[in-house]
Amino acid sequence: MKKTIAIDMDGVLADFETQLIIWYEKHYGVKVTRESFIGLPESEALPHKGVVRDFVTTSGFFRTLPVIEGAIDAVKKLMVHFEVYVVSAAMEFPLSLPEKYEWLQEHFPFITWRNIIFCGDKSIVNTDYMIDDHPKNLDHFKGKTIMFSAGHNANFSHHQRVNNWDEVLAFFETVAED
């Protein structure tokens, strides 16, 4: 029986911060950098308050997220030794449901519908491992937590941190050998 991994979408597979930067420049004509996100919730990182909520409730935002570098190949490699599930707390933004599903079909077509979980609260997830960028999703998880680095989680250190997909693979190589 393979061990199981839950992988978050936004901020782990899909580059949420880059999308915010792109959309902000497109709508406001102002270029912001990734550094503006360090230590702040995404909702406070951009100069115009409330704009993040506006973006995530706009059609096309989730469908056009860039893929985080290395994610596709890394997930394929993980699937050799683990049962992988994509888990996204998508219920807060109903427009995101079909867009996230279409995005997964385009970029991760090798993940079947049986391994995609859209939920409202990730505390229901019962896998062996969870990779997420939000500490709130990891804090109540019963398995092993892995925090994928993002600007908004820079000040948190109570979960094992990985900075990129190479580090994720390195972590799971040691686990697969056990």
Which series of helices and strands comes N to C? EHHHHEHEEHEEH
**Strand line-up of the largest beta sheet:** 3-2-1-4-5-6
The number of helical segments is: 7
Helix content: 25-40%
Low-confidence parts: none
The biggest sheet amounts to: 6 strands, parallel
Question: How large is the share of residues in beta strands?
Answer: 15-25%
User: What is the first-to-last residue Cα distance?
Assistant: 14 Å
Q: How many β-strand runs?
A: 6
Instruction: Using the CA coordinates, give the radius of gyration.
Output: 16 Å
What structural class results from the helix and strand content? Answer: alpha/beta
Average pLDDT confidence is 95
General shape? globular
Task: Tell me about this structure.
The chain is an alpha/beta fold and 178 residues long. The protein is 35% helix and 16% strand. It contains 7 helices and 6 strands; from the N terminus they run βααααβαββαββα. It has helices at 16-28, 42-45, 51-56, 71-81, 96-107, 135-138, 165-176; strands at 3-8, 82-88, 116-118, 129-132, 144-148, 160-162. Strands 3-2-1-4-5-6 form a 6-stranded parallel sheet. The longest helix is centred in the N-terminal third of the chain and has 13 residues, at 16-28. The two termini are 14 Å apart. The mean pLDDT is 95.
